[in-house]
Amino acid sequence: MGLAIKEMMAKRAAEEVENGYVVNLGFGIPQKVVNYIPKEKTVFLHAENGILGAGPAAEKGKEDPDIVDSGCVPITTVPGASYFDSADSFGLVRTGKLDITVLGALEVASNGDLANWMVPGGLVPGMGGAMDLAKKAKKVIAITMHTDKKGNPKLKRKCDLPLTAVNCVSLIITDLGVLEVTDEGFLLKELFEGHTIDEVIEKTGAPVKVADVVKVIKSEE
Amino acid sequence: MQNRFNKIKTIDEAMKHITDGCTIMIAGFGGIGSSYDLIQAIIKKGVKDLTLISIDAGDPDVGPDHIVGNKQCKKLITSHIGATKAAGELLNSGELEVEFSPQGTLAERIRAGGVGLAGILTDIGMGTVIEDGKDKVKVNGNEYLLETALRADVAIIKAEKADEFGNLVYSKTARGLNPLMARAADITIVDANEIVELGDLDPETVITPGAFVDIIVKGEGDWTWGWQ
Lengths: 221, 228
Prior knowledge:
The complex is a heterodimer. Chain A is α/β, with parallel strands linked by helices. Chain A has helices at 5-14, 29-32, 86-94, 130-136, 197-202; strands at 22-25, 44-47, 51-57, 75-83, 100-104, 107-109, 114-115, 139-143, 155-156, 169-173, 177-182, 185-192, 208-217. Chain A has a domain at 5-31 and 97-217: Glutaconate Coenzyme A-transferase (3-Layer(aba) Sandwich). In chain A, the strands form two sheets. Chain A has a ten-stranded mixed sheet. In chain A, strand 10 (169-173) and strand 11 (177-182) form a beta hairpin. The longest helix of chain A has 10 residues, at 5-14. Chain A starts with a helix and ends with a strand. The mean pLDDT of chain A is 95. The relative contact order of chain B is 0.19. The longest helix of chain B has 12 residues, at 103-114. Chain B has six helices and eleven strands. The two termini of chain B are 33 Å apart. Chains A and B meet through helix 3 and helix 4 of A and helix 4, helix 5 and helix 6 of B.
């Protein structure tokens, strides 16, 4: 049996992570990325609330109420972890010490603009740390369904929703494939098995260039 | 325990500083690192028209959201209210003014207030609605937003240990905003899990020097997390 598509998207994002990387994972599918980082790579997960070296969720009954991730889930720490205050936590972000952040997206524009924090007239949860992370991580990976629930493209010429940060996303992993944000807009580089180049072009709200070789990511991989 | 600096007080005594219309900072992240007892005392006192500064609205059962949900705030300065219902409902119904600040910017505005600076320059939020109404400053050819410093009348701090002078150490991820807010208020009230003698804290491990602390209370913390 192949992995469910959201797991495959997380697995693909994990391939971007190198040994020694400092990584921040957003809520939703990005949180699954940690499960696919190979054991031979030592990675330091950053959580905005003040930890570098976040480990897996704490076992039931062994939770420490003072060790939680940015979603307030009780977690553990890995060897080499550190705690710090919120100013240090975002100082680390703003000075470019985050190698990768993986974030969810409501919309991504073909110049890399990201909208992921509010829908006018709808819920206004607030941006939390997303503006800081999106603007300053060395590499911003957006993980998102290619279209919204009504089938409207989430990858567009220009975002209609309020922006989180301008010109920040460099790689987009959707349920259809993997696109790079280039100076000439979206570049399709990989497809998940079962999807086609035409389908990606049809479901994207901006021109899509296609790489010379488009790799197909097989579901049993 | 001696009380030579008259900083160790009861929660009732500490509450004299919380009055209608005052500005309060409450530290903590989703309730972790927040003083449950002092939040409950603010609710019990029933003060109104507060301006509340907190990084998020907190866990609905143990965080500052309790005060928001009790309609004691006219304004909330925060980065996130998504984990709670009350703040969003009051925002949508117009009963609560919410000023959103990106989380790192909010932390830095509080840090600035606590170290005697008037504001900070940052490019976070450039090209977004965060720019609206803010002055811009050019440094070395690059443009930055001028984000003003934040201070409060009272800061509500949760520490792992305090000594009689108010030197503080924190616990793990319960540190968060606590050291920043402890410096940024006219009156800093600390709820400590343990109050120890002068000299019991290793000076190398003290995060907040006691000079920043005005009042120390011993919280009971009689509550549990949802997952406990």
